[in-house]
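User: Structure please.
Assistant: Input sequence and predicted structure:
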Amino acid sequence: MKRILALIIVVLSFPVFADEPIDIGSRRELMIDNHLIDSMSDSLRLQMHKPVRRNVALVTDAPWEGNACAYSSLFHDGEKFRMYYTANHYVNRVGRIEEPHGRYLCYAESVDGIHFTKPELGLVEFDGSKENNIVLAADTLPGVKLDPGHTTILKDTNPDCPPDARYKAICRSPVKGELGLFALKSADGLHFSRLHDKLIITDGYFDSENLAFWDSARGEYRAYFRDFHDGPPGRGGIRGIKTATSSDFINWSNSAWLKYPGAPHEALYTNQVAPYARAPHIFIGFPKRYVDRGWVDSTGRLPGLEERKARAKASPRYGSAVTDALMMTSRDGLTFKRWGEAIIRPGPSRRNSWVYGDNLISWGVLPTKSDLPGAPDELSIYAIEGYWTGKSQNFRRYAFRVDGFVSLQSPLGGGEFVTKPIVFKGSELEINYSTSAAGSVLVELQDAEGKPIPGRALADCHEIFGDEIDRAVAWKNGAGVEQLAGKPLRLRFVLKDADLFSFRFHGDGTNQ
C-alpha cells in the first residue's frame, strides 16, 4: 500500500499537459468546421452559404458539341483562364438514346473568367474541317484508344514537374476488359502524348469525372475517382468516391473510400475536389448528388414531361432521376464534412431544369471581378443547365464571396466562441467578416489557460463593423501582435449579427 501511495504522489507531482497547441503559422483558416473551436455559444452556428447565380459563360452550340457536354475543368493560367470540356449530343429515340457524333474534348479560354470564347485550334478534323476547338478525339493519338467523354485536364503545379508534362490529362480507358485510368502529358495544354504506357489506377469504375492534382501542403499527388459501393451498377451499387496518393503520378497507393461522418448514404456522381487556393491545406469539393425516387406523382409534374417519358423508354431512371449540387470540405483529403443542403437547387424555371445531369459543377474555382462598383473580387464556379433537353446546353456561372463558403454566424442577440490553444507567426490578425449596420465583431487574445492578455482584452478591442475581406483587428494601443508570435494562446471572438468567414495572422512575408 505504501508503494502505491508513493507512486501516486510521484505521478501527481508532474504537471498535466493538455494537447499540443495547433500550429497555424501564418496560414489562413476558414471557418468550415469546428476544428479550431474549443467552446461556442448555442446562438452561434456554422452557416453554409450558397453562390449567387450569374451569367451564362459558355453555350455548347457548335455542330461538334451538343446537349450532353458533361464534364469540364477550369483553371487560371497566367493571363488567361482555360476551360476543357467534353462534347457530346443525345437524341431520344423510341427505346434508345442515340449519339449522332463521336465524343470529343474541347477547349475554351477567357481573359476574365466571365465570358469564354472557342479558338480555332486546327488540331482535330470534324466533318472534313479542322476549324474547331477540339483538342482530343477517340483516335487522336496513334496506337492509343481514348475516351474523350471521360477526360480531365489539369495544370501540374509540382515545382519539380518536367516542362513537357506541365499539363496532364486523366483519361478513362475505353478498351474492353481494361478498366482503369491512364495519363497523357503536354507542354502547352493542347498537344498531348502518353505519359506512361500502362494504366495508372485500376481500382474503380471511373464512369464520371476522374481527377488528380498536386497537393502542395502535403507534397504529393492526390486522385479522386468514381466507384460503386455495395455492388456493381444496376445491381444495388451506390455511386461513391475513392481517393489515392502518389509521389510521381504513375505509381499510386491503394485506394480508400471517402468518409463523411454524420452524413447520409447518398449517391454522389462527381467530386470536384481541389485544394482551396487561399488556404491550400483545406480541400473543397462540389459533388453532384443523384436522386431517383422513381415514377411518383411529383415526377410527372416536373418540367418537360413528354421528353422525360421519351428518355424513360430507354431506361426508367433517365426520366425519373434528378440531380443537384452539394459542397464538402476536408483537412486531410479523406474525411469530409458534407453539407446535406444543396448549394445549387434545380430551381423554379420550367426550362433547362430538373433533368438528370443538370447542376453538375465544373472542376475549378476561379477568381473573377465583381459587377458591383468598388467591390472585391469574387470566386466563380460553373454549372450545367439544360442538359439533354435541347440542341445545346449552358455553362452557368455562380459566384461566392472570397472565402465565403461557410461562416460562423451570430444573430443580433450575439454570441461568442473561443479557439483551442494555437501558435502563430506574424505581426497582425486579419479577418474576413460581414456585419449588419447594428452588428459588430470584437476579438480578445488569451493565454493558453484562457486569461485575457493585457492590452489585448475584449475591453481594449476597437469595435469592428462593416464588410471586408482583409480587415486588421486593432486594439487601443495598436494592431501589433508580433510579441505573442510563437507562444500558445487562444482567440475569443464575440459576434453580433455578424459572419466570420476566415482569419489569419500575417506580416512575416508569407502573404498569399
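Confidence is low (pLDDT under 50) at residues 1-17.
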